[in-house]
Amino acid sequence: MKCDPPLSAPPSLAVKPRLIRHLFLPPLVILLMIALGYVTYLYSEKNGIKALGENGERQLELHARTVESEINKYNYLPSVLELESNVSDLLNDPSPELRTKVNDYLEGLNRRSRSRAIYVLDTTGRVLATSNWRDADSYLGEDLSFRAYYQDAIRGLPGRFYGIGSTTGEPGYYLAHGLEEKGKIIGVAVIKVRLEALEERWQRARLEAFVSDENGIIILSSDPARRLKSVRPLTAEVKERLARSLQYYWWPLNELVPLERESIADGVEKLTFPANSSVDHEHTVVSYLAQTRDLADTPWHLTLLTPLEDLRREAANQGMLVAVACALVAFLLIAWNERRKVISTRLAAREALEQANNELERRITERTADLRASNERLKGQIRERRQAEETLRQAQDELVQAGKLAAIGQMSTSIAHELNQPLAALRTLSGNTVRFIERGALDIASTNLRTINDLVDRMGRITASLRAFARRGEDKGQASLGKAVAAALQLLAGRLEASALDLHQQIDDVELAIDQTRLEQILVNLIGNALDAMQAQPLPVLWLEGDLFEGRYRVRVRDNGHGIDAEARKHLFEPFFTTKPGEQGLGLGLTLSASLAAAAGGSLNAEDPAEGGTMFVLILPLVNSGAPII
Ligand code: ADP
């Protein structure tokens, strides 16, 4: 039969190396999440800073204006004193009465202008009159020539100065103006104002801001901790100079050093300070957007600090949101991809199944055609065999028939003898009987008639046996062994009697699966041969024995005749092999007997018994192996 190659799996069903994907995909997704989250964070922070910057710019402008107006609103005040004749008189001629007048005047003016103090210095820098003349720490008589504002004002420049009062130790903004008379400076008017109101305002507005002066020292701050700290590094020389000027009294002027400083634009910086642990427990550092602007008419700068924590939190939230969204999208993409793969695998599997199915169907069709052809061939062979069998059977039947006819031919002499004897007796008896009837001897006549009857019966049995022997039989059938043995012995009765043999019969009356006539034929052949072999035997003995053998029945026919020599044994079952002289033997008996036994599913063999003679063993199947044995 043709051998097809095995069905190969389609490429789509082949196992893919997924391990690499499974190993690298999760870290890749996590990396992507982190990267996107971080980029979003930076972007959001940048945008936020931009927005904060714009807002801060407006706030800075607003508060710078406020600071400027707060500072500038006192600008005019020192120059007002030029109008006051008592002041110029006092400067020209400092008398106690005038001093008292001017003191009173300054006191009133100070009260009305809500400044801290107003005082007048002579050209040497000594305080001639002051609004706080009543106070214990009054400036009266004090020499303030070392003050920068005095030094500026005496030269005709506007004196602007933020410092800590050397008498009171109180910080303040000093505005000085050189008082002129006829083009000559005769003294200096000074007004000290406090700017703490600005700080309070910032604090109320929760604004973080500070003002640094020309030295970079924070003079105003919403956070008191930053006050009087330097926003830029001070050299030892500058520190020394400032200390000597007593501008900040003896304050240490520490630097407000940020942990981190990043310049974003001109006047815009990102500063990170350590957090004030007493206020902020949550953070260790605080970052600000610092926007600085010059204040008009002063060398000062206003810096607005906008905390970046909220913005950073918001940016972190957005970053996280984007990372989560990225994870979600990645998850959806992976899920979609997996589903797509499952679907395509299913489709491929279905396609492969269909292909395999088609292939299978094709092969089935091919094989069916092959099978049909071989079936046809087999049928042809069976037909031929049946025909051969039929021919064989016919030949066999012919042979059997020929054998039978031959046997009948052989037996014809003895049959004729068998039939002639009763015929002769019948003739005599019938003639006598007629005569006895004529004489009226009816008793003797009836006795003769009974004898005639018996003779006719005997003749009928002989012819019946011959007819049964000559009849064609069937392969299948059922035979009684007892009856067959009896029939065979009956058929050969003449010869048996003539030979005066000793018969040992030990046969069970079993039902054998063979046609009755055929069994009888076999037995007649075997017993007839035995009788032939024992012709020269003075004390012929014939053994007919039977027993069960391997589920079948075994019949042994043994004689004490001349036996079979080795050469004859080779050809025993060959047709027309005979050792019998003349017309006695045809050489068909054993051939036919063996073929009849084989046709019934049995066997026939010759054995050479140790005690001499010949033994034929006939084995035949039982009709019902369970049947009781008689
Ligand atoms: P036939 O009897 O016509 O010769 P058979 O086929 O019956 O043909 O026998 C073939 C030969 O087998 C006989 O000629 C004889 O030589 C031998 N044979 C058969 N039976 C016996 C027997 N019981 N003892 C010795 N020889 C036998």
Automatic annotation (TrEMBL):
<dbReference type="InterPro" id="IPR003661">
    <property type="entry name" value="HisK_dim/P_dom"/>
</dbReference>
<feature type="transmembrane region" description="Helical">
    <location>
        <begin position="20"/>
        <end position="43"/>
    </location>
</feature>
<keyword id="KW-0175">Coiled coil</keyword>
<feature type="transmembrane region" description="Helical">
    <location>
        <begin position="319"/>
        <end position="336"/>
    </location>
</feature>
<keyword id="KW-1133">Transmembrane helix</keyword>
<keyword id="KW-0547">Nucleotide-binding</keyword>
<keyword id="KW-1003">Cell membrane</keyword>
<dbReference type="Pfam" id="PF02518">
    <property type="entry name" value="HATPase_c"/>
</dbReference>
<protein>
    <recommendedName>
        <fullName>C4-dicarboxylate transport sensor protein DctB</fullName>
        <ecNumber>2.7.13.3</ecNumber>
    </recommendedName>
</protein>
<keyword id="KW-0472">Membrane</keyword>
<keyword id="KW-0597">Phosphoprotein</keyword>
<feature type="domain" description="Histidine kinase">
    <location>
        <begin position="414"/>
        <end position="624"/>
    </location>
</feature>
<dbReference type="GO" id="GO:0005886">
    <property type="term" value="C:plasma membrane"/>
</dbReference>
<keyword id="KW-0067">ATP-binding</keyword>
<dbReference type="InterPro" id="IPR005467">
    <property type="entry name" value="His_kinase_dom"/>
</dbReference>
<feature type="coiled-coil region">
    <location>
        <begin position="343"/>
        <end position="405"/>
    </location>
</feature>
<dbReference type="InterPro" id="IPR029151">
    <property type="entry name" value="Sensor-like_sf"/>
</dbReference>
<dbReference type="GO" id="GO:0000155">
    <property type="term" value="F:phosphorelay sensor kinase activity"/>
</dbReference>
<dbReference type="InterPro" id="IPR004358">
    <property type="entry name" value="Sig_transdc_His_kin-like_C"/>
</dbReference>
<dbReference type="InterPro" id="IPR003594">
    <property type="entry name" value="HATPase_dom"/>
</dbReference>
<keyword id="KW-0812">Transmembrane</keyword>
<dbReference type="InterPro" id="IPR033479">
    <property type="entry name" value="dCache_1"/>
</dbReference>
<dbReference type="Pfam" id="PF02743">
    <property type="entry name" value="dCache_1"/>
</dbReference>
<dbReference type="GO" id="GO:0005524">
    <property type="term" value="F:ATP binding"/>
</dbReference>
<keyword id="KW-0902">Two-component regulatory system</keyword>
<dbReference type="InterPro" id="IPR017055">
    <property type="entry name" value="Sig_transdc_His_kinase_DctB"/>
</dbReference>
<keyword id="KW-0808">Transferase</keyword>
<dbReference type="Pfam" id="PF00512">
    <property type="entry name" value="HisKA"/>
</dbReference>
<dbReference type="InterPro" id="IPR036890">
    <property type="entry name" value="HATPase_C_sf"/>
</dbReference>
<keyword id="KW-0997">Cell inner membrane</keyword>
<dbReference type="InterPro" id="IPR036097">
    <property type="entry name" value="HisK_dim/P_sf"/>
</dbReference>
<keyword id="KW-0418">Kinase</keyword>
